[in-house]
Amino acid sequence: MTDTFKWAIFSPGRIARQFADAACHLDGCTITAVASSSLARAQAFADNYAVPHVFNSYQHLLEQVEIDAVYIASVHSMHHEQIRLCLNAGIPVLCEKPITVNATELKQLITIASQKKLFLMEALWTRFLPVTNQVKSWLDMGAIGNLQHIQASFGFESNALATDRLKNPNLAGGVLLDLGIYPIAMSQYFNPYSVKEVTAKAILGETGVDEQLTVRLGYDNGVISEFICSMNNNYENNLKLVGDAGSIEINAPFWGATAAKLVQTNATKTFDNPHIVNGFEYQILAAIDAINNKQLEALQMPLGDSLNNMRLMDTIRAQIGVLYPFESDSITDT
Length: 334
What we know:
33% of the residues lie in helices and 25% in strands. It contains nine helices and 14 strands.
């Protein structure tokens, strides 16, 4: 492997541009190739980021260009197929959240990655932010005593049309997989215990996907986590952790935050750490470090966590009655 880490990008949309903005500012990191079903879209991306190799075939990119890893930023429903394509070609993968649509898909990919001894990680950037590390440190040192309650919201007025990705069931639309994954993943990270109770309520839109969702998770250590997410309404978009000796609030938007506040009985502390670029850089550096050191997972986002999160989301979708057209009659995995 050369000193310069060579990325390829599948599906150069909005999220891929955020990835590229961060990657292009990192030393020893370059974007070598891009592929899209639309050659014009791929070429426009390449022109903007000085990417030398452009393809309208994902398979051809993997066959014709030497790369160190692929970053997948396609719609949710394409993740499983594209990850499998890369793994079978012997290429490590960093894939946007949700890493797959359901737990069954992810279990298949974990098996392939394990058999081929290849790195695979869900690009859930919030897990890698400095503010997340600080909040975890406060919790671990008992700064708020025993954690009791987690509250979060993620909502905005999308004004999405029925044909939009967010509302398209064929593309695994809905707020759970798009937005709800963030409070789930952070609840699981801050309180790494088993969930014993799940209660979910949703408002389904005309296309059958969840447009608004409230979820209550009851953990076996007594902690309750509650969140609401919506594509139709604006919310505070923060995350709060309450203990018996204080609280922590991660500023809005919590999924990309730079600041948090610790409130104790006799003291208040504030953490504020602006991103180097846009926040994506931390997960990129973690992936590069793991791959260069021949590790198959990243400590901050191991595949076991991704699988547990996916199983939770399968349970939630079963409760609210959201099954995508390309799925079987049952998605519940144990």
